[in-house]
Write a structure and sequence with these properties.
By secondary structure, the protein is mainly beta. It contains one helix and 73 strands. It folds into nine domains: 198 residues, Sandwich (Jelly Rolls); 99 residues, Immunoglobulin-like (Sandwich); 93 residues, Immunoglobulin-like (Sandwich), CATH 2.60.40.10; 80 residues, Immunoglobulin-like, CATH 2.60.40; 87 residues, Immunoglobulins (Immunoglobulin-like), CATH 2.60.40.10; 86 residues, Sandwich (Immunoglobulin-like), CATH 2.60.40; 86 residues, Immunoglobulin-like, CATH 2.60.40; 89 residues, Immunoglobulin-like; and more. 1% of the residues lie in helices and 48% in strands. Strands 3, 4, 5, 6, 7, 8, 9, 10, 11, 12 and 13 form an eleven-stranded antiparallel beta sheet that branches. 33% of the residues are buried.
Length: 955
């Protein structure tokens, strides 16, 4: 709905502001529409011209007395508004609004009166004004108010509603000054022509009420449908003139017990609790954000929860054989008859072939027959499942009708040659009596091919690229005994083959091979190909093929893309041919510098991955940074670790060792190590640092002759740290807060050389613990005497034990529970209101963490207890009442109100009031379900406790 607000709709009677009229747009979640209506007619009257009318004048409305020489003009204004458009919507606000334009004297008070009058006419004059009917409002303008520019907003909703109730088509308001100010020239003023500012909403309406699945009419009390089961589907059509979000509320009740009316937002009606023959009325109502529309007319249904007792009889002449070789054939339709055998409760049947989609079929008359034409798609054992249903939608038991479909349909094997080229098709049939195979392409004419030795062969020419369907039928002389179809994709992309270069080949770089390009369409004169280094062209021979010699220069994976070129220079779809070439040099890569921040450094191990695709590789021979030759013997894939001894580049040289002892060409991998110092940190308990506890950084140089280090934390102030004789240093540091920090550090050598900067990131753990509880810190929950629990949890570091207390009580120790994420202790509050939990951890060395405080609020929920209620599971005997003992909540409770609802059905089961003292709530669940019991206590002076909800799962 488009919502606009052309004049501010003021909820107060009068609002004073300094702004002019504005236009705003309401938010999309608001259903109310704001509009302003101009007067359909207006006039002012002049005492100096008592017989002269002034209908619909231009400009503003004059009010009060002005002097024209010796002549005094006393004026009043009248405004008539059309009410036709306000008859349908719900009116929320109607204000008569205007604004002062000019004032003779802002120090004088002008007592404005608003009257409801008879309508304005073309002959309205001072001598013959519209008859005054009632005074609507009085307002004081001028002194003490914003002047000029006074905003006027008067609530006229009662007057408009009354006029609509009187079926009046318009309403008229008069504006004048009260005597004696009306004749005082100092109080005269002009106002903008009055308007009506309206806030309204079109309430949604419902229509076309009915039952669905299956569709049944709304009905009348005298004639209506039957329905049964837990999921009777109610349906209405909702119309909202404003196109707002709507919600539908449904009501239903036994006609003989309207006091049992239940309202719900669920369109599913469960009538299993009603006896057969019960007449149930139902209706629906739609609502939007602001208003509810009228209820629909009442619909009726008679409850029938009794399904047909007997399964239907099923038979078929075509498919009446239950064993091999069977009858009929795939693609051959057969008629199946479903017979209710005179059971007049049966109005139709559900059937399903081989557990596929269930289809409904009406009987020819109650208790009669239905015939379904069904076409099996596969041979061998098939089964038809059928059940009866009645007019209420109750389903009876399934019956299974088994039959065997003879294997008669032809198998189809198509060798697709391409577009415009003959493609070979082979047909095969297992039917001994087959004489011919008929085939058709894409719904075209059928071609018959004789069967020889249970098979037949044909050639099909596909006329275009894309998807094509071949339908084949087996014939026994002139009779179709089986059908099968197959859909294939056809392309004109060329065929690419190679004996040397295939996806799992052992081709090696430097060894020549070739590719053959073959056409999949007529008229190919050349091929364009690309190995990823640029497109090239090779001419095709007379048969459309081409052979491309090729020698790979590098190892790796290749994607060869080939297009066929036609005589008109158009191109075919591309063919992509992937293959691998083995590099004679082994592959090598390292993890140096691969992380951010960089964790590699002098003296730190670097892992190198080695791989060779050559056949019969037994290991690798390598050297690092000119060191001694080393060898692996674990085959073609290996990891080795090397330790750089200096910053900068070190060369890793590797060759593959073959089974015959020979070596492959060498691969050289440069490994570059930063000159930044190497840093490690250790907290007080061996891991990361803790806030407020001293941690130690160990710093080692990557360059020679280091004399000091420059460092900062998180880009803060830079500090210096002297190095020891060996260039190393230690730094003791206490973290001010728990967070993630970055240490930036570089070394300075004796000759002034400054190293790379190491960015060393590390986490700082919080020594404090977190507290969990059964009660909320934001709103009351639980109640006195209702047990709960308190939990303690830490994210990092060791725990010797937890210390905790409630309020001013003593600290109590509890050993940490290593089996879960938190350690819990039971606690039962003795009174409602807030209480504070304090807890901390004691580290294994006796140090204590800061105290964590957590304040929660205990509510006034009553206690509801039963020895047979374990968690939410009711353990009492089936069919026996659920009994709860109710007590507590707050002092002075004299009674408890309770309500029991079926959560799944969204229906109330029972409700009542219990007297405090020996309150015992008892109800018998009508069925297995999930029930919610809501309990509220009330004191003698009418105060109520918090609501207690008990969830009970009854199996």
């Amino acid at each position: 709905m488009h919502r606009s607000r052309k004049i501010p709709l003021l909820t107060a009677a009068v609002t004073l502001v300094a702004a002019a009229f504005v236009t705003t747009t309401a938010g999309p979640a608001v259903a109310v529409e704001y509009t302003t209506d101009q007067a359909t007619a207006w006039a002012y009257t002049d005492s100096a011209q008592p017989g002269t009318p002034a209908p619909d004048p231009a400009g503003d409305a004059p009010i009060g007395t002005t002097a024209d020489g010796s002549t005094a003009h006393t004026r009043r204004a009248y405004f008539t508004f059309d009410l036709t458009a306000l008859r349908t919507p719900v009116l929320h606000e109607v204000n008569l609004v205007s604004q002062e334009r000019s004032v003779q004297d802002c120090t004088r008070t002008a007592p404005l009166e608003i009257w409801r009058t008879k309508p304005v006419t073309a002959t309205t004059t001072w001598a013959k004004p519209p008859k005054a009917l009632e005074k609507v409002a009085e307002r004081a303008m001028g002194a003490g108010a914003y002047c000029p520019g006074y905003y006027l907003s008067i609530d006229v909703l009662p007057q408009v509603r009354a006029a609509l109730d009187r079926r009046e088509k318009s309403i008229t308001f008069e504006a004048r000054l009260a005597a004696p100010a009306e004749t005082d020239p100092a109080t005269a003023r002009t106002l903008r022509p009055f308007r009506l500012a309206v806030a309204s909403n079109n309430a949604p309406v419902v229509s076309e009420p009915k039952l669905t699945y299956p569709d049944r009419p709304c009905g009348t009390l005298a004639k209506h449908p039957t329905a049964g089961g837990a999921y009777v589907s109610l349906s209405v059509k909702v119309t909202d003139a404003d196109d707002d979000y709507t919600n539908v509320r449904y009501a239903h009740w036994p006609v003989e017990h309207p006091d049992q009316r239940v309202e719900t937002t669920s369109r599913s009606l469960n009538v299993t609790g009603y006896a057969d023959g019960t007449v149930v009325g139902w209706a629906a109502q739609a609502e939007d954000y602001d208003d509810a529309g009228p209820w629909s007319r009442t619909c009726y249904l008679t409850v029938d929860n009794t399904a047909p007792a007997a399964a239907p009889v099923v038979f078929s002449r075509k498919y009446g054989v239950t064993s091999y070789p069977g009858s009929g054939g795939p693609g051959v339709a057969g008629t199946f008859v479903f017979d209710a055998e005179g059971d007049r409760d049966v109005t139709g049947f559900d059937y399903s072939l081989n557990d596929r989609i269930t289809t409904g079929l009406a009987a020819n008359h109650p208790g009669g027959l239905a015939r379904a034409k069904v076409t099996p798609t596969g041979h061998g054992p098939n089964r038809m499942q059928v059940r009866s249903y009645d007019a209420a939608g109750n389903r009876g038991p399934w019956t299974t009708y088994s039959f065997w479909v003879r294997n008669t349909a032809p198998d189809i094997a198509i060798d697709v040659a391409g577009v415009g080229l003959p493609s070979r098709v082979d047909f095969y049939t297992a039917a001994d009596d087959a004489t011919a195979i008929g085939w058709a392409l894409d719904g075209g004419a059928e071609t018959l091919v004789p069967v020889t030795g249970r098979g037949a062969t044909a050639e099909i020419v596909f006329p275009s690229k894309g998807s094509h369907t071949v339908v084949a039928r087996t014939y026994a002389k002139k009779k179709v005994i089986g059908t099968h179809s197959q859909t294939v994709g056809v392309t004109d992309e060329p065929e690419v083959t190679s004996e040397e270069f295939i996806w799992d080949s052992r081709a090696v770089n430097g060894v020549p091979g070739s590719f053959t390009f073959s056409p999949r369409a007529v008229g190919v004169v050349a091929y364009r190909y690309d190995f990823g280094d640029g497109e090239q062209t090779i001419a095709a021979g007379g048969d459309g093929t081409a052979v491309l010699p090729w020698t790979p220069q590098n190892g790796g994976y290749y994607n060869l893309t080939v297009h066929a070129v036609f005589a008109d220079e158009s191109l075919s779809d591309p063919a992509t041919y992937g293959f691998s070439v083995i590099d004679t040099r082994p592959e090598a890569s390292s993890d140096a510098g691969q992380n951010w921040p960089d964790t590699s450094g002098v003296g730190r191990s670097v892992r190198v991955m080695l791989y060779s695709g050559l056949p019969d590789v037994s290991g690798f021979v390598y050297t690092f940074d000119g060191g001694a030759e080393q060898e692996t013997t674990d085959g073609f894939y290996s990891y080795v670790d090397v330790v750089p001894t200096h910053a900068g580049e070190s060369l890793f040289v590797v060759r593959a060792r073959l089974a015959d002892g020979s070596l492959s060409p060498a691969r050289t991998l440069p490994i570059v190590i930063t000159s930044a110092p190497v840093v490690d940190v250790r907290g007080p308990y061996g891991g990361e640092p803790f806030q407020g506890m001293e941690a130690t950084f160990t710093i080692k140089p990557a360059l020679p002759d280091v004399v000091e280090y420059r460092y900062s934390f998180d880009d803060g102030e830079e500090h210096t740290l002297a190095a020891g004789p060996d260039g190393s240093a230690t730094l003791d540091w206490t973290a001010p807060t728990w967070s993630y920090e970055t240490l930036k550090i570089s070394s300075v050598s004796a000759d002034g050389t400054v190293s790379d900067t190491r960015q060393y990131g590390f986490g700082i753990d919080d020594p404090a613990i977190s507290i969990q509880a059964s009660w909320s810190e934001y709103s009351p929950s639980g109640g006195p005497g209702i047990p709960g629990r308190i939990g303690f949890h830490t994210w990092d570091g060791p725990v010797g034990r937890y210390l905790w207390r409630v309020g001013d009580g003593p600290m109590q120790p509890v050993e940490p529970d290593e089996s879960g994420s938190a350690t819990y202790v039971p606690y039962t509050p003795e009174q409602s209101g807030p209480f504070t939990i304090q807890a901390q951890r004691e580290f294994p060395d006796g140090r204590l963490s800061p105290v964590t405080e957590y304040t929660v609020i205990v509510g006034t929920e009553p206690r509801a207890e039963s020895d047979l209620l374990v968690g939410e599971q009711w353990t009492g005997p089936a069919g026996e009442p659920v009994v709860l003992r109710i007590s507590g909540g707050m002092p002075g409770v004299v009674s408890y109100d309770y309500r029991v609802e079926d959560y799944y059905a969204q229906e109330q089961v029972t409700a009542g009031t219990l007297t405090a003292g020996a309150a015992e709530l008892s109800f018998t669940p009508p069925k297995a379900s999930f029930y919610v019991v809501t309990i509220t206590g009330t004191t003698a002076d009418g105060a109520t406790t918090d609501q207690r909800q008990v969830r009970i799962d009854v199996k």
